[in-house]
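The instructor's notes for this session suggest beginning with a concrete chain rather than abstract definitions. Hand out the sequence below and ask the class to guess, before any prediction is shown, which regions might be ordered.
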Amino acid sequence: MPTLGLGVWAMRDGAETENAVRWALDAGYRLIDTAKLYRNERSVGRAVRGSGIPREEVFVTTKLWPTDFGQVEHAFEGSLKRLDIGYVDLYLIHFPVAFVPGFGAIRRRVWSTLEKLYARKLVRAIGVSNYDQSTIDETMSAFSPAPF
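After discussion, reveal the predicted structure:
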C-alpha cells in the first residue's frame, strides 16, 4: 500500500474529481481513496482507467457505508461497477456504529461477507476506517483475516 495518497472526499463527481485524480497520478501518487458516500466513484474509475498507468500500480480504496450493512455484497458490487476497474485494492467499513442495537452480530455478519469478497479476489484487502483503538483491537482479535 502506498504511503502517499489522494482522498477525494468533498469533491464533486465529474471534472473536479477526474482532474484531481489525474493530476495526483501524474505527480506520482499511487493511492486514491474514495467511498460510496462521496458519490464520485465513477469519476475516480474514469481517471484511473484514463491515466495510462497499469491498474496494478494504482491502489484504490473505497468504503462500505453503515446504512448498507444489511446488503454488503450488493453495496460492494455497486462500488465495483461504478469504479469499473476490475477489483478494489482495499474495502473498508467506513466507521463503526456501536450505538446500533445488536452491533456485535451485525459486525460479524458484515465481516463474514467482506471475507467472502476477499476470498473471491474481488478485493485485495479488507479493513476498517475511523475506528478507535479499542474497537480496532476487538475487531482484530475476533476476525480473520485481520483488518488492514
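Then share the key points. The chain has a mean pLDDT of 90. The beta strands are 5-7, 31-33, 59-64, 88-93, 123-128.
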